[in-house]
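Ticket #4471: structure export looks truncated?
Reporter: QA, pipeline team
Priority: medium

Steps to reproduce: submit the single chain below to the structure queue and open the exported record.
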Amino acid sequence: MGSFKSRRDATRVIYEILSIARAGATKTQIVYKVNLNSRLARGYVEFLVEKGLLIPCLSQRGGTIFDLSLRGEQLLRSLIEVEKLIQLFPVVQTILRSSQPLAHPGQERPR
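Actual output as written to the record:
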């Protein structure tokens, strides 16, 4: 099957971070549970805070806990619905697992 390695796209990583933040999460918990290095986790968390999807809160221990904002909860619900819809279509699952890019209409698929 070659050296094709399945990678998560940014949407999937955001989905996973929002899922964890539902119950409140530290940056360290995000790093471990989403399996990101600290640099990537910091970038995603900063982006999500800037977009108003995560809210940084002071924990009792003095650290920062990230919680979902109302907007973050709405996005997470939408992503869950999209995932459910995609799972209904086996053809989409096959395409998503394919290592070759899709061809545009009128173009041949690369071989």
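Status: closed, not a bug. The export was complete when the record was re-opened. Leaving a note from the reviewer for reference: The two ends are 14 Å apart (CA to CA).
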